[in-house]
Amino acid sequence: MKKLPHEVVASLLAVTTVLMAQLPWHLPVWAIFISWAGTFAMGGPSAANLKRIWPVLPIGAIAGFLVVTGFGLAAKTFSGNGLLVAEMVILFCLNCGMMMMARLPGLGFIPGMFFGFASFFATMFGGFGPMPKDPFSALCIAALMNAIGPLYAWITANFSVRHVPHEKAFPAVPLNELGQKV
Q1: What's the DSSP call for residue 46?
Q2: Residue 115, Cβ neighbours under 10 Å: how many?
Q3: CA-wise closest residue to 52 among 115, 8, 139
């Protein structure tokens, strides 16, 4: 089977997101692009990289969900500077806890956690999903959209041929006689 150019396959996949963004779903399709690009930024959709990114994306979204939920609970008890301090403590504890999870086997890709974290907040406060501004709905939708990104990266890499730019084939970096950077 002849493969299509990388740009064509990626663009065909991108086109599928137009339907996902339509009402009534109003899905945050940009969360697909975040994890799709993140997969390529970590070196591409190899089996090892997919095993690194997929488990941590929802961890970030869950941490974001817990931050929003914690802030909501704190707002029922505190106000003014007390609320500000409570929110800072909540964010510190949950962010620290999220990043400490990277010490566990299979959860070491911290940037992926932040892809999920940011996707949750943008989904929640951007009013995306079938139930806008609902924290649990935002969690589910952001996690789903983030999970699709690495899949799209895998499809792009496996069903296309990538053009190697002249700069990659012939780097403008001076090399010594052993081929090492000078």
Answers
A1: -
A2: 27
A3: 115
Closest CA to 60 of 17, 152, 13, 124: 124
User: Torsions phi, psi of 51, nearest 5?
Assistant: -65, -25
CB 32 within 8 A of CB 123: no
Domain boundaries, the chain: 56-160
The model carries a pTM of 0.86
pLDDT, one tens digit per residue, over 20-48 is: 999 888 999 999 999 999 999 999 999 99
**Cα 83-120-9 angle, rounded to 5 deg:** 160
104: helix, coil or strand? coil
Give, in degrees to the nearest 5, the angle at Cα 27 between 25 and 31: 170
